[in-house]
């Protein structure tokens, strides 16, 4: 009975990871940071849209090619994810029609990047297949969806301080993806030209830590400095540096997919607690 229960819980947890629910919560963590940093509110409709959009988008990127090539021989786990993703897509469409037009326009740009990230175009190439583009596209989409879209939806003017924050978010997501890039060294095609493929693991870690330092330096370029937010940024950059240091090609199954992916959620919790002190 005990081992049966453990197996059920493990299967549920694996589904939670593989179906991108955890990724969606991480995206919501970033959104929460944006809300607290800029002191804005967020509608339930936008939050639902971003949550189900993250699941739909990530599963599309991860499984579209597999579903296309092996649609007659998908295993049971992928079938479940496919069905789950379909219902998430329906929820996405439901929330889509409740958003302002200006939000939809901005969202469309980032959605197009996500689509062409997975679907071939430009002489039958996907965007992710262009050398060095994979990590950049991921960072731009994450930063845009979790920072720019919530601000646009709340009619906030995009000032210089916000664009600085957007650039910081792009850099942070770039660093956040490095443990995944290191993990995928043994799977990624050489043509992708990922950073670890180009410069090796050690240099990738050094570059990641330098980017974290750059993020902190850029913070002081903002017209107004929120010291509570700045302290949270310092703490999360330190935590990210530790994760990056311990990233290896042979990782435990959940090191990147759960623990590293949880960093945006942890950042939101840290910032929220600091705001309450």
List the helices and strands and how they pair.
Layout: H1 2-18, H2 21-38, H3 44-69, H4 76-96, H5 101-118, H6 133-153, H7 160-183, H8 195-199, H9 201-219, H10 227-245, H11 255-259, H12 263-276
Description:
The chain is mostly helical and 277 residues long. It folds into two domains: 37-99, no CATH class; 131-271, no CATH class. 75% of the residues lie in helices and 0% in strands. It is built from twelve helices and no strands. Helix 2 (21-38) packs antiparallel against helix 3 (44-69), helix 9 runs antiparallel to helix 10 (227-245) and helix 10 (227-245) runs antiparallel to helix 12. The model is unreliable at 68-73 (pLDDT under 50).
List keywords for this structure.
globular, mainly alpha, 277 residues, 2 domains, single chain, 12 helices
State the helical fraction.
Answer: over 70%
Structural class: mainly alpha
Largest sheet: none
Per the principal axes of the C-alpha atoms, what is the gross shape?
globular
Strand content: under 5%
How many domains, as an integer?
2
Q: Outline the low-pLDDT stretches.
A: 68-73
Mean pLDDT across residues: 88
Helix tally equals: 12
The count of β-strands is 0
H/E element order: HHHHHHHHHHHH
Give the radius of gyration: 19 Å
Note the gap between the termini. 45 Å
């Amino acid at each position: 009975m005990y081992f049966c229960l453990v197996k059920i819980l493990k299967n549920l947890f694996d589904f939670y990871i593989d179906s991108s629910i955890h990724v969606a919560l991480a995206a919501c963590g970033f959104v929460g940071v944006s809300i607290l940093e800029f002191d804005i509110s967020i509608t339930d409709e936008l939050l639902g849209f971003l949550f189900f959009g993250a699941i739909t988008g990530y599963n599309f990127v991860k499984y579209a090619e597999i579903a296309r090539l092996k649609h007659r021989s998908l295993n049971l786990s992928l079938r479940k994810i496919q069905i789950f993703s379909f219902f998430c897509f329906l929820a996405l469409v439901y929330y889509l029609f409740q958003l302002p037009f200006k939000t939809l326009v901005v969202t469309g740009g980032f959605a197009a990047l996500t689509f062409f990230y997975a679907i071939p175009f430009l002489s039958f190439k996907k965007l992710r297949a262009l050398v060095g583009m994979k990590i950049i596209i991921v960072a731009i989409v994450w930063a845009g969806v979790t920072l720019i879209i919530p601000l646009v939806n709340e009619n906030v003017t995009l000032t210089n301080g916000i664009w600085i924050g957007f650039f910081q978010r792009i850099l942070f997501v770039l660093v956040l993806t490095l443990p995944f890039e290191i993990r995928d060294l043994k799977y990624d095609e050489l043509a992708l030209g990922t950073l670890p493929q180009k410069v090796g693991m050690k240099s990738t870690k050094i570059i990641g830590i330098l980017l974290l330092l750059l993020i902190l330096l850029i913070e002081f370029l903002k017209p107004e400095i929120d010291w509570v937010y700045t302290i949270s940024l310092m703490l999360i950059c330190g935590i990210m540096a530790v994760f990056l240091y311990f990233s290896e090609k042979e990782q435990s199954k959940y090191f990147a997919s759960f623990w590293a992916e949880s960093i945006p959620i942890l950042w939101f919790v840290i910032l929220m607690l600091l705001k309450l002190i």
